[in-house]
Each structure stands twice: as C-alpha cells, then as structure tokens.
Amino acid sequence: MDSKNTFSTLLNRMLQGMMFHSENCDYFAFLGFDGYEKLHKVQFLEESMCYRMTKSWFVKYSDLLVPDGGLIIQEAVLPDSWYNLSRKSVDSDNKGELVKTALENWNEWESGTIDIVNQCYLQLMDMGRIDLISIVLNIADDRTNELKFINDLYLEAKSVNFNSSDLMQMQMDICLKCKKNRKKLEVALREYWND
Ligand SMILES: [Fe+2]
After folding, report:
1. What domains does the chain contain, in order, with CATH numbers?
2. Where are the alpha helices (DSSP H) in the chain?
3. 142 C-alpha vs ligand 1 centroid, how far in Å?
4. pLDDT, tens digit (0-9, with 9 covering 90-100), for 84-94
C-alpha cells in the first residue's frame, strides 16, 4: 500500500458520491420534492469541486498521476421500476415513506464515506505521510457536517411523521436552506478557480 493507492480509493468513493447525489436529484425531481432535489444539486456541485481539487492537488504535490480507483460500482438509488412510470402515477400516500427511505440511505452513504476517509487517514499515518493528511481532514470535516445536516433533516421530517402533504409544505423552507448552502458553494467556487 502506498499513498497513491490510498488516494485512489478516496477518489473512487468521491466519484461514487457524485453519482449518488445525481441520482438523488432525479429521485426527488420525480417525486416532486423541490427542496430535497436542490439540496442534492448543491451537494453534487460541491463534491464535484472537492473531487477535482483533491485530485489536482495530489498530482501537483506528489508529482504522480493517481487513478480513480477502477470500476465504479454504485448501488442504484432509483428503483428500476420507476423508469416505466410517470411522475403523476406515483402514489401520493407512499411519498412520505419514500422520503424516509431516501434520508436513511443518505445517512448510510455518508457514514460509509466517513469510514473510508478514516481508513485513508490511518493508512497515511502508518506511512508517516503527515504531509498528505490535511486534505483528508478537510474531506472528513465536510462529510461530518453533511451527516449532521442529514440528521437534522431526518428529525424535521420525523416531526411530521413523514406525512407527504406536510413534507411537501416544508419544501419552500428547505429551498431557503439551499440558498445559504449556495452561498457556501459560491465561496468554494472562488477557491476552485483560484486553485
Ligand atoms: Fe455527500
């Protein structure tokens, strides 16, 4: 194991994370939950920039190219059966349960990512590569904040018993949260261009 392998594993997970958020955009667009869709759009962009910055940084700093970690195998977020449905044909009473499942899956995904980031950190420590650790810590920090955010969203949805009408009413407030997240994204975009 060398630092290139470690970063390759990390980058692979980051790419899968982008696919995860992209599929969630479709999931919530299909169900008509605009706020949740926007949250995933923001995450998709933020994590895309983070992936690119991490990769460029490693190449320039270490002087080595790093592969993305081989095949991307990511469990589909969208059920296959949905590809044969229209948006209007989804049972409204079931939508709350679908939101619950998606929020639980999001929590599970980011927890899994944090486990991988932790493993990468420990590998770099074992190699004595303290110089490479700061960027991994930044990723850990971002994912931990994301996990906290998901837990807040889950509690908010649970407070209305995942009732689909109530969840629909909450979408406007969630869109306002996205505006705050978009501001963070604009700051990240400046860093991205200046990198
Ligand atoms: Fe994420």
Report:
1. 3-65+93-194 (1.20.1260.10)
2. 3-31, 34-62, 95-127, 133-158, 164-194
3. 9
4. 999 998 888 88
